[in-house]
Amino acid sequence: MNGIMLERYELSLERIKELRDEKYLEERYQRYFSCTAAFLCQMADTYEYVRSGQLRKASMEELKAHNRKLYEDVLPEQYAMSYANPAYGVKELGEEYGQLLSFLYTELRSLIVFAYEQDLFEMIIRMELFLEVYYAFCSAREENGIPVYEELRQIIYWFVSDYSEPEAEKRLREQLCPEKDFALRIIMDSDLEDLRYLFYFGEYVTDSELKTAKHLNDMSRDEIKLMADTYTEGYRIGFEVCGKDITKKKTVNIRYSLGFERMIKEAVYNFEKIGMKPVIYRAGVSAFQGKGVNKIGYFGTSANKQYDYDHKDDQALYLDKQYVNRRLEVLKEAYETLKEEAALLGGPAVMEIFGETPFAPETKKEALRLSEKQQKLSVEYMSAAGELQNEYIKGEERSFTIISFPVPPIGDKYEEIFDEIVKINTLDYKLYRDIQQVIIDTLDRAKYVLVKGMGDNETSLKISLHELKSPDKETNFENCVADVNIPVGEVFTSPKLAGTEGVLHVSRVFLGELEYINLKITFKDGMITDYCCTNFETEEENKKYIKENIMFHHDTLPIGEFAIGTNTVAYMAALKYGIGDKLPILIAEKMGPHFAVGDTCYSHEEDMVTYNPDGKAIIARDNEVSVLRKTDSKKAYFNCHTDITIPYDELGELSAVTADNEVIPIILKGRFVLEGCEELNKPFGQ
Fold it and tell me: 529 phi and psi, to 5 degrees?
């Protein structure tokens, strides 16, 4: 251990231990600092607990108790009285100070994972930040006052600014370098029959992870291999069907949820056989890494999704133009330092979960929110960061795959549902390929597609399609089987924006784990002109909710994708088990027509030539916005792509309309009526 680092750590910890019992500040502030200091001492104890080897020797009961104690402050039953809750922080400490100190308390909670990773640097810089803020209060107390708010905000600002450089490179190394193998070593070196290993990650562990791991342990080797093979073959075939050379790539990002280690371990062996080393990095836990309800990386159960939601806009405390420029500058430097490693990354292999209790967030006025100016800065940063990523990890060379499995909270029939999803994930892709080709052949005759809802669904859309100059050699729609996007079951295109118009309406949908009631989006020439939902009492709250979580602060977005889902097996499984509201978009999008707002299906890959199984080239790779990449790439991409599905039971009509106005129905009243698609209706009768 570096002597200077150790000295900094010991000095900080000694002072933090002292202030736990001090009575120097006004009572409400002293109570906050004493409580927070006690938590930091707990983190120091945890660091030692891991370092000394006690973690690996502890019993299951001890590990459960220790894990709960780490996270109990933000669990729903405790959250109302936690400084991590901005509402409580504001109530106890005042509006500005409450928001800022709630941010600080939340940032310090990232020490949990750093203690497990034995990352002393990350612990020290946050302990020193805490002390700097405390000393500001002590200094002001000498004048019988409290610090000026701006002084405290500047402390936070320079903390995130000064440490941006090492943090950017550290995070990028975690995403690119196989030697950063904290999680991998737990997976590969542990006895996965001994479920204590789940507590070695430092994530919040619940019965869900334990039951998932046990269920996988109860499965046969052949069953596990089938799951892993579907996952890794989907990744490999993704390169093959797009004409990309996988031999140029040496690393793969594995993203997953704890409990599936037995499958992931098998997948690691599979990837090694095709020359790929796994890179498994943790989902963001701090201001530097990005955090929120949607997690990217590996993770355990969220201790409290409302807590995650409350702090998704914490950067409002420090986000300005200077900070954006600083972040982009250090990100560029990090990519340049790691450009060789970046060039070797093949892309992500994602294993999603579903079945958790649906989350409908409460929007708190006390939580930090981005101003309109900051929203634009956030969009600017995401756009520029996306361009940087594509410069070093080229879109035309990388691929991905995504697969989903349920977790125990989905219900009493978890094991039965799990087996059903394995079946859905491994359906006969040749059967779907041939049926979907019939649909594509019909759609390729169309100038536009009409989509109408039925019953209470108010959808009425006209989707404009690109003109095929050589119909015998070209197609608008991709025949999607089981490669990058598992399970099978859709045909999709990037529609023409001009002439695409109307209203998209869904009675209830979950997007990015957030619920939307009566989501309605209006389009003109393919661009969003209006939107609303009925989640909250006021129109203002509903619009703000959509703009933050679907629009991602953009003023408008185009329709980037139109697709027809054909997986009626998945649809009927959802009805049979009553899990329609819990399915991930990955499966839900296969259960009816869906529309993505944001970038096209071929973002950063527009100039590649790819072909369907019938040999036709897919030409609908651009729209009137994405084509701007040729003159101004900042205007071409939005760095978001959100799929919204109309389920079959809300779908009245989907018809292809030819240039001479012939109307060819494909789906009527939720059933496929196009000749050659009869097989898709069979699950409805079961």
Answer: -110, -20
If asked whether residues 506 and 621 sit together in one domain, one would say yes
Q: Report yes or no on 494 lying in a domain.
A: yes
Does residue 411 form part of some domain? no
Mean pLDDT of 272-277: 96
CB 252 within 8 A of CB 235: yes
Give the residue-averaged pLDDT of 263-274: 97
Say how many C-beta atoms besides its own lie within 10 A of residue 321's C-beta. Answer: 12
What would the two tokens of residue 196 be?
A: 């204590």
**Are residue 99 and residue 206 in the same domain, yes or no?**
no
Rg (CA), the chain: 26
Q: What is the pLDDT of residue 485?
A: 78
Do 202 and 336 reside in the same domain of the chain?
Answer: yes
Q: Measure the CA–CA gap between 199 and 494, rounded to whole angstroms.
A: 44
SS (H, E, C) 408-436: HHHCCCHHHHHHHHHHHHCCCHHHHHHHH
Q: Sign of the C-alpha dihedral, residues 218, 63, 305, 598?
A: negative
Q: Cis omega before residue 647 (within 30°)?
A: no
Is there a single domain that holds both residue 107 and residue 135? Answer: yes
Q: What are the tens digits of pLDDT across the range 134-166?
A: 999 999 998 888 999 999 999 999 999 999 999
Backbone angles phi, psi at 455, to 5 degrees: 65, -130
Q: Do 36 and 108 have their domain in common? A: yes
H/E segment holding residue 505? strand 496-511
* Domain of residue 483, residue span: 427-685
pLDDT digits (tens, 9 = 90+) for 342-365: 999 999 999 999 998 878 889 899
Biggest CA pair distance of the chain: 84
In a domain, 354, yes or no: yes
Instruction: Record the pTM.
Output: 0.86
Task: Determine contact, residues 645/589, Cβ cutoff 8 Å.
Answer: yes
- Name the domain boundary from 110, 127, 162: 162
The pLDDT tens digits for 594-650 are 999 999 988 888 888 888 889 899 999 999 999 998 888 778 898 889 999 998 989
Q: Specify the pLDDT at position 613.
A: 87
Same-domain check for residues 370 and 481: no
The pLDDT, as a whole number, for residue 676 is: 95
Total domains present in the chain? 3
Contact, 36 vs 105, CB < 8 A? Answer: yes
For the stretch 665-686, pLDDT in tens is 999 999 999 999 999 999 988 6
Both 216 and 134 in a single domain? no
Q: Do residues 663 and 655 make contact, with C-beta atoms less than 8 angstroms apart? A: yes
pLDDT-based confidence at residue 335 (cuts at 50, 70, 90):
very high
3-state secondary structure of 607: coil
- Among the listed residues 503, 497, 493, the one whose alpha carbon sits nearest the alpha carbon of residue 450: 503
Are residues 194 and 157 both part of a single domain? no
Work out the average pLDDT over 70-89. 97
CA torsion sign for 251, 639, 452, 439 is: negative
- Residue 267 inside a domain? The answer is yes
Residues 250, 346: Cα–Cα separation, whole Å:
7
Residue 238 has pLDDT above 80, yes or no: yes
Do 178 and 277 form a contact (C-beta atoms < 8 A)? Answer: yes
Domain boundary among 131, 162, 193: 162
Three-state DSSP at 52 gives coil
How big is the chain, counted in residues? 686
Secondary structure class of 447 (helix, strand, coil)? strand
33-69 pLDDT, tens digit per residue, is 999 999 999 999 999 999 999 999 999 999 999 999 9
